[in-house]
Design a protein that fits this description.
Distance between the termini: 32 Å
CATH topology of the largest domain: Rossmann fold
Number of helices: 9
Structural class: alpha/beta
CATH superfamily of the largest domain: Glucose-6-phosphate isomerase like protein, domain 1
Number of strands: 9
Shape: globular
Largest sheet: 5 strands, parallel
Oligomer: single chain
Strand content: 15-25%
Helix content: 40-55%
């Protein structure tokens, strides 16, 4: 977890070498993944659409409408063995013949063998069941194709690691993560991290959707945590329920703050944040 800033800089160096593999200008792109990988794809898709204006979709691998016409399908899987991702790639390769880019941490994996081309982030692999550094490095790799400033994110993440987990998490019974665009996908991942690592009650919504129902469950013991800068009016409405509010800035580095919170909450609950119950490093189905 704490290696992320240095690995983000390595990812930026790698991106200059493999840039031709990454999504090109104007390409219609679909990202598929499961769990964390899906949320990273969701974040990238939102950013590419808004920043570059290029049509970009993201779907859970099991739900992707791959009959649609894409110029490139990006398959995200840390292990390269996730069943649904492999099935989606087979469908693409056997059907339209669309190019598939695999982004994984394991060279020689089934995903690498199936894909048209691959970028292997071996330096970002991790032994834990719960993903941290591979997920953020994979997201950053894709964001770099849209001009993301890796150095600024790495510097901010280093500050966050020095600061430690936010004090606001103390006494919280309900975590509500918010964000817009890129940050909405990151908010989904943030909520998943607390559920996986600490068994916490955590939810995620696009920021403006918080008013449309979820606010009714907020109150004392709720922490509304935005992955990007939160609208002042929304802050006021959240606080009116008795909830506390935490506002971020750079969504990528803010996710590191969530990792620190997950670690602290897991320790308080007597849980191993790297090996949660009922989860495995890769979901391989019969």
């Amino acid at each position: 977890m704490r290696s992320q800033p240095s690995l983000w800089r390595l990812t930026a160096q790698l991106a200059t070498d493999v840039g031709v593999q990454l999504p090109a200008e104007g390409q219609r792109v679909c990202v598929v993944g499961c769990g964390t990988s899906f949320f990273m794809g969701q974040a990238f898709a939102a950013y590419r659409e808004r920043k570059c204006g290029y049509e970009t979709d993201a779907f859970p691998a099991s739900e992707a409408p791959l009959q649609r016409k894409y110029d490139l399908v990006i398959a995200l899987s840390r292990s390269g063995t996730t069943t649904e991702v492999l099935e989606a790639v087979r469908e693409v390769r056997q059907g339209s013949g669309t190019q598939v880019l695999a982004v994984t941490a394991v060279s020689g994996s089934p995903l690498v063998e199936l894909a048209s081309r691959s970028v292997v982030l071996g330096f970002a692999d991790e032994g834990a069941v719960v993903q941290t550094r591979f997920a953020t490095c994979a997201l950053l790799l894709l964001l770099l194709s849209c001009g993301w400033d890796a150095g600024a994110s790495a510097a901010r993440a280093e500050q966050i690691l020095d600061e430690g987990a936010p004090e606001e998490i103390g006494g919280t019974r309900q975590f509500v993560f918010l964000g817009r665009g890129l940050a909405a996908g990151v908010a989904n991942e943030a909520a998943l991290k607390l559920r996986e690592s600490a068994g916490a009650w955590s939810e995620a919504y696009p920021s403006m959707e918080f008013r449309h129902g979820p606010v009714a469950a907020a109150g004392d013991g709720t922490l509304v945590w935005s992955m990007d800068a939160i609208d002042p009016a929304l802050t006021a409405e959240a606080r009116a329920t008795g909830a506390r509010v935490l506002s971020g800035g750079d969504p990528l580095s803010e996710l590191v703050r969530v990792h620190l919170a997950a670690e602290r909450l897991a320790a308080a609950a007597g849980l191993d944040p790297d090996a949660p119950p009922h989860l495995s490093r890769s979901v391989v189905l019969s």
